[in-house]
Design a protein that fits this description.
It is a single chain. By secondary structure, the protein is of the alpha/beta class. Helices cover about 50% and strands about 10% of the residues. It has a four-stranded parallel sheet with strand order 1-2-3-4. It is globular, with a radius of gyration of 17 Å.
Length: about 200
């Protein structure tokens, strides 16, 4: 008996919005997989990722000098990007399309930092898995004015972009004129709260 998900796959493409490889394995295959820092934060809380976290920290310490020369990045921010890449690579066997990686949200108002961050993420994929096809990477960029300028530059470099946190038709039109490969319209307010403690 086909599931509702199976029926949905007959009419549309289905992406996943998780960094849980077990979900992707049990419900996949999916086309694309999206991620952001909040999704990664909640996923790395699981005990099964302790080795992954240690390895990401080691990798960050190894590559930080070279990556920092290309674009200013803290060791901690680099480690977070490496964790996101490593988590996404665990899902790749259950995907037929792209992996979507969000740039650091603190860079949302600097075109230069977003472009550098996107290039760094592509470099991390190349460092962590030399066999991964980097044409499958899509960088999620906030739909600020600076972000859409970054999208335009990245698309011209051959790096796919997705305009995210897009709340109005004007942002969608600007994302289209910037050449974004994808847009992610939001139909409700964001409710992501990460509290200390």
């Amino acid at each position: 008996m086909p599931s509702l998900l199976d029926k949905l796959r007959l009419k549309t493409t289905v992406d996943c919005d998780t960094l849980d490889a077990e979900v992707a394995a049990s419900l996949g295959p999916f086309v694309d997989c999206t991620s952001n820092q909040a999704i990664a934060y909640f996923e790395i809380q699981r005990d099964r990722h302790q080795d992954l976290l240690r390895h990401a920290a080691t990798t960050a310490r190894e590559v930080h000098p070279a990556m920092n020369e290309l674009s200013s990045v803290s060791l901690e921010a680099l480690a977070v990007e490496i964790v996101m890449v490593k988590l996404l690579l665990l899902l790749v066997p259950h995907l037929t399309g792209n992996v979507h990686v969000q740039i650091n949200p603190f860079d949302s108002y600097s075109t230069e930092r977003m472009v550098n961050g996107a290039q760094r993420i592509v470099g991390i994929f190349q460092h962590v898995d030399t066999t991964f096809d980097t044409l499958r990477i899509c960088i999620k960029i906030p739909s600020t004015w600076e972000g859409l300028q970054a999208c335009k530059q990245l698309e011209e470099m051959g790096i796919k972009t997705l305009a995210t946190t897009l709340f109005c038709l004007e942002q969608a039109a600007l994302a289209g004129s910037s050449g974004c490969t994808f847009i992610a319209p939001y139909v409700n307010e964001l409710r992501v709260h990460i509290e200390d403690g």
